[in-house]
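Report of the visiting student (M.T.), summer placement. My assignment was to run the structure pipeline on a short list of targets and document each run. The first record concerns YgiQ family radical SAM protein.
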Amino acid sequence: MQELKLSDWLPTTNKEVKIRGWDALDVILFSGDAYVDHPSFGPAVIGRILESYGLRVAVVPQPNVNDNLQDFVKLGAPKLFFGVTGGCMDPMISNYNANKKRRDKDAYTPNGDIGFRPDYATTVYSKILKEKWPDVPVLIGGIEASLRRVTHYDYWSDKLMPTILESSKADMLVYGMGEQPLREVVRLLQKGVPFNSITTIKQTAVLLDKDAKIPKNSNWEDVEIVSHQKCLKDKKAYAANFKIIEQESNKLAARRIFQKVGEKTLMINPPYPTMTEKEIDASFDLPYTRLPHPKYNKRGPIPAFEMIKFSINIHRGCFGGCSFCTISAHQGKFIASRSQESVLREVDTVANMPDFKGYLSDIGGPSANMYKMKGKIQSICDKCVAPSCISPVICSNLDTSHKPLTKLYQAVDSHPKVKKSFIGSGIRHDMLVPEFNKNANAKELDDYTEEVMTKHVSGRLKVAPEHTSDPVLKLMRKPSFTYFHKFKERFDKINIKKNLKLQLIPYFISNHPACEAEDMANLAAETKDMGFQLEQVQGFTPTPMTVATVIYYSGYHPYTLKKIKTPKTRKEKDEQHRFFFWYKKENKAWIKSTLNKLGRQDLLKVLLPENDKWRKNKPGKPKHTFNDAVPFNQRKNKAKFRSKKKQR
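After the run finished, the structure tokens were exported:
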């Protein structure tokens, strides 16, 4: 691998601009993350895409908002527009945990240091730029802008907020993955079309002034949702809005959405079709250095980069549609897969990095085993409005073949410099259970599971049942916990057959809408009975653009408008959480008292039997943990642990 020069990265300073021989810039990008020139980091992707259109692009990573704001003026004004993103995660998730306490690390900053990213970074950066450069257009994008494009509940301020276009004063919002809309924005700007006249590009949103004419487009149908002001007064109306928003976000032929915001009108144009293989390959094949900018060499490693340094992203999108997850709202439910050739080119690039030791940390995506999956008959998908392709059952039109993925793994492993490739992303275990995935070939599913367990796991396989309660799982858009038991049976069978001694690591969520203390007690009892001892757990965090968050704030399910109870007080949340830690001495008296009050002596006998010989390192039942990560879910002896309330 040839030695890199400073000019191999997009410029971040005037000195670097001059090294390239430029006297002006076309686009300047501002980001809440440190600048890592890698295809897993959105600002780098957007910068490289714009560069591929012949534009002169610079990046201002983590500008200082606490001084004289020099970072916002040091590069001058761009000829076309400023681009603004809060980073690869919503800044409020980066800055705070589920209990609204400040995190002590920021994974997207050198050395994990905190304090380099303001709360609501997109809004903060955009407002400063509009004050400093009122005549230069500001285009916002990335996950923060994407998920806050319409009236949304903000958990950290505990308020219903209007579209981020209103609070940020930006001129345009690009939602979802930005390659397709930006291509058209740039094409029109290069033709001389004024920025404020560009209002009909797919996958963009603008805020129209009171007297502005509604742009016409004969190819689109329109739908108007309840105004922001009405949402502030009527939680049920706010909830009803979300059904329309979610369905239109996941349709291939979506309607244009309008919403009144004060005297202005929010206009959200329909999304682009799913990226083709050629389009997504082109994005990943851009000339990334795959490294952090040299300016950080003395500041320490960037944790998020270290985690994915030797990983390969093979697709985008997720058709799971989980009610607590934002992936489909941002990336879409339809899968955009890279070609095997593109993946192998990247593998070769990584394998030839000077510090590569032969191990790829992940060959995956949002859900690792959705590569190349799509509808068998496209015309059926064209008309579909369902938010999930696998809930409550797997769609009969969905091709869930794992053969292309197995073939890809084998091709990656055949590279002479690759000793082992791991699957670090979460696997949808339910799709590997023939009783649930009824249209799939059972042998093919077992072959894939065996391939993963024997060649792509280092001691642990992560899966996400999320809960054990069927009513909670139904609301989550997850299958019954029964299928986790069935998957574990197959897992154990392969473990014994191949003498692997692997651990199965299940992820669970507490405090989710519809979850009650009794459900958490049931979860604790059932997972204990299976031999799991959970040590780190995920509390539900309401994030914009999810069904679960709408329920959390409004109390209504957006599809049925029926009331749903949600744990909201600190006391309720802490008590649900405590059931995870039934084995801790300080929790035992409380658990005993609580279960006696609930009349659940059956659960008490399982969790705290008088002569409990259950041990954390019981032979044949290894200790299982899971990390406090971004949430991504299940059950046996169903009747044994079913609540008395449900029996009634």
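DSSP finds 25 helices and 24 strands in the chain. Residues 615-648 have pLDDT under 50 and may be disordered. I thank the supervising group for their guidance throughout the placement.
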